[in-house]
């Protein structure tokens, strides 16, 4: 009799072996405490800032006799607290929103929102590079989902190589489709899902154009823009209020997601919305209803980080970060111009970075990341299926606490790796059999056959 556990383990081993053979096997790793961080999402370095840590510990000591380590229940049972509700009000006011609802993570916030907000017959139109949590939420929803080409609002924005249409083309198709009359009249809602800053490419959404496009196509007001500000919270906009506030679009965005585990240096998330939507999520968002609420220590950490931002103490950190972004780009650009490597080996975007996230595109991303790690710089390779095929990269994340010397050291490691790869490629090419000049198609074919037969 076959042991089902053994059989299942064999199946898993086969799947893992296949993934490993394609160089796509994920593993948990521990970071060397002495390595320089160019990988985490803590863009302002708040999680380790001495002033914030002191303020946090001080607040815990003041409240030592008043709090428990955990909430021991969901918000709807025994996990709700005065502090949680006050924090929601404070954060909503900071981001200039009417209301907010806390979640334990950005992932839970997105799955909760997208799984219950769309009603039967509604649509979710989403940027093709939207986060995995939005995809999982959409799968749980009753909506029909349609992607559009990344950051492409109009047809002219779409590259010839893209198989997807622009946002405007998708919306026009909806108004002209089988549900066109219901969509146009407002009987069907259309939710448009985008991110403020995209985590893998570091580019900023053309949010103003997106909002204008949606408002033009849905004059009845049934087009609802949702912005995931996970990677724009804390550093983008006045006092880190995010992209929506930077553009003054607070009243034209249906819902915003802000997370606290990246630039804020904590954990958790909040959905900013109307009071009615907040009440709806409390009743229908399963990732809120059936999970234990955040306890006092984490709520205090979030409040401490927001107090730091609101007081303007992070302004100097942001200034350092922006300067570092420019200096890093100039160094990388200099390396690219110096060696002019083939794009499949190493390439950076030609425009200055819009965020602290700088992708270093390479078909040998794992090799490049390993080399940098061995030189004392933590960067991570990001490969398919996390990113689309053919867009493997090393994800470089800058932080306010990184120094110019650290950036120069990392760039030296990148240059060293690039020199080695180009030298090896040149040596390999020198070993190839010379191909004689050919003047006719028949001769060209003969040379190819001859060369292949000798290899």
TrEMBL record:
Entry superkingdom: Eukaryota
Example of a GO biological process term: biotin biosynthetic process
| Gene Ontology MF terms | pyridoxal phosphate binding; transferase activity
The transmembrane segments are none
Its keywords, alphabetically, are: Pyridoxal phosphate, Transferase
List required co-factors. Answer: pyridoxal 5'-phosphate
Q: Which residues form the Aminotransferase class I/classII large domain?
A: 35-414
Q: Member of which family? A: Belongs to the class-II pyridoxal-phosphate-dependent aminotransferase family. BioF subfamily.
Kindly give the PANTHER family that the UniProt entry links to this protein: 8-AMINO-7-OXONONANOATE SYNTHASE, CLASS II AMINOTRANSFERASE/8-AMINO-7-OXONONANOATE SYNTHASE
Protein known as: Aminotransferase class I/classII large domain-containing protein
Source organism of the structure: Conoideocrella luteorostrata
Taxonomic lineage of the native organism: Eukaryota, Fungi, Dikarya, Ascomycota, Pezizomycotina
């Amino acid at each position: 009799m076959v042991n089902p556990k053994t059989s299942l383990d064999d199946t898993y081993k086969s799947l893992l072996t296949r993934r490993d053979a394609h160089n796509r096997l994920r593993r948990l790793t521990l970071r060397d405490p002495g390595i320089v961080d160019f990988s985490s999402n803590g863009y302002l370095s708040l999680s380790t800032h001495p002033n914030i840590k002191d303020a946090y510990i001080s607040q815990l000591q003041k409240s030592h006799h008043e709090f428990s380590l955990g909430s021991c229940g969901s918000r709807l049972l025994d996990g709700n607290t005065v502090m949680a509700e006050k924090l929601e009000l404070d954060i909503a006011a900071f981001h200039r929103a009417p209301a907010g609802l806390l979640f334990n993570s950005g992932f839970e916030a997105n799955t909760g929102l997208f799984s219950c907000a769309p009603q039967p017959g509604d649509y979710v139109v989403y940027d093709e590079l939207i986060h995995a949590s939005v995809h999982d939420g959409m799968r749980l929803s009753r909506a029909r989902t349609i992607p559009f080409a990344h950051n492409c609002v109009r047809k002219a924005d779409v590259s010839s190589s893209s198989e997807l249409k622009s946002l405007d083309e998708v919306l026009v198709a909806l108004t002209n489709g089988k549900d066109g009359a219901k969509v146009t009249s407002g009987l069907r809602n259309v939710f448009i899902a985008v991110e403020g800053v995209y985590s893998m490419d570091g580019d900023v959404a053309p949010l103003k154009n997106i909002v204008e496009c949606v408002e033009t196509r849905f004059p009845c007001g049934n087009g609802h823009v949702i912005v995931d500000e996970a990677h724009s919270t804390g550093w983008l906009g006045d006092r880190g209020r995010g992209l929506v506030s930077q553009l003054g679009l607070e009243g034209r965005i249906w819902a915003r997601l802000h997370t606290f585990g990246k630039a804020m240096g904590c954990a958790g998330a909040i959905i900013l919305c109307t009071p009615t939507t907040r009440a709806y999520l409390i009743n229908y968002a399963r990732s809120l209803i059936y999970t234990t609420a955040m306890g006092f220590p984490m709520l205090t950490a979030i409040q401490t980080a927001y107090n730091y931002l609101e007081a303007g103490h992070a302004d100097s950190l942001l200034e350092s970060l922006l300067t570092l972004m420019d200096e890093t780009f100039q160094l990388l650009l200099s390396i690219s111009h110096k060696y002019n490597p083939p794009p499949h080996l190493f390439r950076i975007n030609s425009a200055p970075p819009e965020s602290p996230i700088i992708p270093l595109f390479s078909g040998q991303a794992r090799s490049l990341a390993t080399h940098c790690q061995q030189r004392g710089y933590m960067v991570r390779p990001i490969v398919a299926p996390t990113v689309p095929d053919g867009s493997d990269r090393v994800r470089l994340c800058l932080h306010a606490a990184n120094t110019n010397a650290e950036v120069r050291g990392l760039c030296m490691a990148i240059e060293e790796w690039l020199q080695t790869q180009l030298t090896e490629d040149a040596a390999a090419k020198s070993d190839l059999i010379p191909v004689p000049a050919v003047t006719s198609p028949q001769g060209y074919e003969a040379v190819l056959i001859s060369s292949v037969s000798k290899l």
